[in-house]
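Quick one, T. Sequence first:
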Amino acid sequence: MSIRSYQKMMAGIDRYTTRAWAEIDLGAIRHNFSAAKAYAESHGAGIIAIMKANAYGHGAKRIAPELEMSCGANYFAVATFDEALELIEAGVKSSILILSEVHPSLYGELCAHKNIITSVFRPECARELSEVSSALGKRTRYFLAIDTGMSRIGLEYTTPAKKQATLEAIEEIHSLGGIECAGIFSHYACADEHDKTSALLQKSRFDELLGELKRRGIEPPIRSMCNSAALTEPEFIDKYDLVREGIGIYGLSPSDEVANILNMIPAMSLKARVTDVKTLDAGVGISYGHTFVTARETKVATIPVGYADGYPRLLSGKGGVLINNKYAPILGRVCMDQMMVDVTEIESVEVDSVATLIGSDPRVNADRLASLIGTIGYELICAVSPRIPRIYIN
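Structure tokens:
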């Protein structure tokens, strides 16, 4: 290779793209959020941007400020207190809802952050939060978490006895000083299925609870029931104040039973540079256990990504990558840090050629890859390891 050719090949390569990287398209994220926001607003609702799990693997510290500054996002949600603190460190000024209870040992620190809102569903924790907040001279905001059928967290509102107990618990919590109810939410278990029977039952329970609370003089300022799966279902989005939009922001579908009517665009592409190319004779085993043996002369490329990077070992012999826009199937087992692919039919593959492992192309879309191993696209994008640098475009 001439010096000129070498210099041309190396142009645009920096330390973060010498091995593997996740390319995050901010233009796609802005489009997805804005589409969801516009749809919600057309039904009289606002939107909470879900940033948990490092913004589903996309980088919460980069995504949240982008949405706040460029798209008018004014409400975020996370899963943990530490995730909320990360957003504050990134400069987020909007309200941040924690979708689970904060441990009482952290109440002092929680009360110091006026834009963090915790979830409450245990009266004993509410009492302790009230005491700490009052002692500090604060008024800490909370959302009531209600279990209408997800059976995960929340005050149960299912059977008559549990409904009564929940109403009494909410009345007690509402009477406490030092804390203030900012809203109430529940979560659908089956809104991403064609059969809406279960979701409609949960909705009816939530509506019933809101009515019972109103009769008791309790009206939470914000009511939130809809997740990404329920966003585009008019019978679910109407009447509520905030939609919790998660996976849709990142361009994936809640399930294959939910239509992509908002034309969401996948935002993450997992890419890597080929580290070796060799031609093997027939009868040669590849990777651990030699689960694949060549039946003919085969040109093989090595990709420096493996299950330690978050690429599932279960995709061994099932998945594939794109090189020069052509599909190269995985040969043998995915290793911890590498995998081998068949590039026999792909011209001009060489060391430093770029392979796309996950992307918007249907052949390597996260949802398709997930379907090959019996999981969901959420898991694949959330699993992309921190050792994979995130590179932001657009």
